[in-house]
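Whiteboard transcription, Tuesday session. T.W. wrote the C-alpha cells on the left side:
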C-alpha cells in the first residue's frame, strides 16, 4: 500500500510503499476513503529533532474516515464493510479519562512508553494518509451512516476540536434560544468555519468572525456569521461596538499567536472566556493584579471526547454542519501539503483515493 511518511524530523514527507498490515487481537483495519489535512500536520512535519515526543518514521494523517476492511479475532465495534470515522486521540483505554471516553486527556500519555509509541493516528503512530489504517481497537471507530467520508474525516479533528472548545465556553454563552451574548471567532479556516456553524446550531450567540483575508470572511458569512472584520488596529473596538461597548462574552482563537491573544483579551468582557485552540506559539502574561479582564476563564482545548465526536457527527448528519472541502487524490498528497502551507486551501484539504477523485 501507499503511505505518506515522515522519515526524518524537518521533512519533507515521502510517499512510500509499505506492506498492508493485518489486524491482530482487538485491532481493526480500515480502508481509507478520506483523510483530512490539518495545520497540526505542518507543525509535525516542520518539528525539529526532540521537539515532539515521537520517533520517526511514521505515516502522517489524523483525520480519517473509511470502510472497515478486516477485524482482528478479538475486535469489537463496527462490522466489516461498515463505514466509520476514526477517533484520533489514542489513549491507553484503561485510565479514568479513557474509561469516560476522554482519551484526549489520557492519564498515561506523558509516560515514556506512550511518548515513544505516539499519541494517536499520525502523531507518532501510523496515520491515515495511506491506503489503509490499522486502528488499535474498535472503540475508536464511530459509524457514519449515510454521511460521506470526505465530509466525515475533517469532523474527527476540525469538527471535534471546535465542538469541544465551544462546550468549554458554553456556560458564558447559554444554549440556543437564550440570546443576548456574543462570541468572536478569530481565524476562519479549517476549524474556524466549522466553529461558526456549530455556534449557530447550538447557541443563540451573535457570531463575530475575524480574519486577515477577505475570502475567509466570505466563508464565515456563508457559514452563518453575523458579522465579519479584517484584522486592523481597531478590530477590538469594532468587536466591542457590536456589543454596546461591553465586549464579547467569549473568544475562540484558532490562530494562537501573541497578536491574536492580545486581540482576544482586548475584546472580551469581564467574566468572559478565552479558548486558545490554535498552536501559533503565542504567549499571554497571566498576572494578578494585571491587565487581564477580571474573572476571565482561559482554556486550552485539545481534541475532544468520543461523545463530542458523536455529537458533531450527528450535527453533520442532520445537515447543520457542512465542511468546505478541497479534494486532492492521494497521489498528490505532497501538492496538497504545499497548498495548505501556502494558505491556498478554502476550508479543509481532503485526500481521497485516486479512483474516487476521478469519479468525483
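and on the right, the sequence the group agreed on:
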Amino acid at each position: 500500500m501507499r503511505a505518506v511518511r515522515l522519515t526524518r524530523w524537518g521533512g519533507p514527507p515521502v510517499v512510500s510503499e509499505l506492506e498492508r498490515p493485518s489486524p491482530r487481537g482487538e485491532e481493526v483495519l480500515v480502508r481509507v476513503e478520506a483523510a483530512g489535512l490539518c495545520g497540526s500536520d505542518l507543525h509535525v512535519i516542520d518539528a525539529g529533532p526532540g521537539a515532539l515526543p515521537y520517533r520517526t518514521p511514521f505515516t502522517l494523517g489524523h483525520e480519517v474516515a473509511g470502510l472497515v476492511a478486516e477485524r482482528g479475532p478479538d475486535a469489537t465495534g463496527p462490522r466489516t464493510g461498515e463505514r466509520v470515522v476514526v477517533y484520533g486521540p489514542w489513549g491507553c483505554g484503561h485510565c479514568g479519562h479513557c474509561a469516560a471516553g476522554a482519551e484526549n486527556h489520557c492519564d498515561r500519555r506523558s509516560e515514556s512508553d506512550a511518548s515513544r509509541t505516539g499519541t494517536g493516528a499520525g502523531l507518532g503512530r501510523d496515520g491515515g494518509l495511506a491506503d489503509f489504517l490499522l486502528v488499535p481497537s474498535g472503540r475508536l471507530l464511530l459509524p457514519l451512516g449515510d454521511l460521506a467520508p470526505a465530509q466525515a474525516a475533517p469532523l474527527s479533528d476540525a469538527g471535534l476540536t471546535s465542538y469541544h472548545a465551544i462546550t468549554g465556553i458554553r456556560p458564558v454563552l447559554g444554549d440556543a434560544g437564550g440570546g443576548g451574548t456574543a462570541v468572536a471567532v478569530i481565524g476562519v479556516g479549517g476549524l474556524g468555519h466549522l466553529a461558526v456553524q456549530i455556534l449557530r446550531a447550538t447557541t443563540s450567540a451573535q457570531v463575530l468572525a475575524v480574519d486577515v483575508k477577505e475570502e475567509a470572511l466570505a466563508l464565515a458569512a456563508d457559514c452563518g456569521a453575523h458579522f465579519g472584520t479584517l484584522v486592523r488596529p481597531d478590530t477590538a473596538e469594532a468587536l466591542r461596538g457590536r456589543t454596546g461597548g461591553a465586549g464579547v462574552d467569549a473568544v475562540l482563537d484558532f490562530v494562537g499567536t501573541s497578536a491574536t491573544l492580545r486581540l482576544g483579551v482586548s475584546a472580551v468582557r469581564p467574566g468572559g472566556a478565552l479558548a486558545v485552540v490554535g498552536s501559533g506559539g503565542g504567549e499571554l502574561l497571566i498576572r494578578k493584579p494585571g491587565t487581564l479582564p477580571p474573572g476571565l476563564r482561559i482554556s486550552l482545548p485539545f481534541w475532544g471526547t468520543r461523545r463530542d465526536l458523536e455529537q458533531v457527527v450527528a450535527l453533520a448528519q442532520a445537515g447543520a454542519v457542512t465542511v468546505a472541502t478541497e479534494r486532492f487524490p492521494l497521489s498528490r498528497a505532497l501538492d496538497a501539503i504545499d497548498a495548505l502551507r501556502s494558505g491556498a486551501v478554502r476550508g479543509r484539504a481532503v485526500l481521497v483515493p485516486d479512483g474516487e477523485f476521478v469519479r468525483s
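Someone added at the bottom: The two ends are 22 Å apart (CA to CA).
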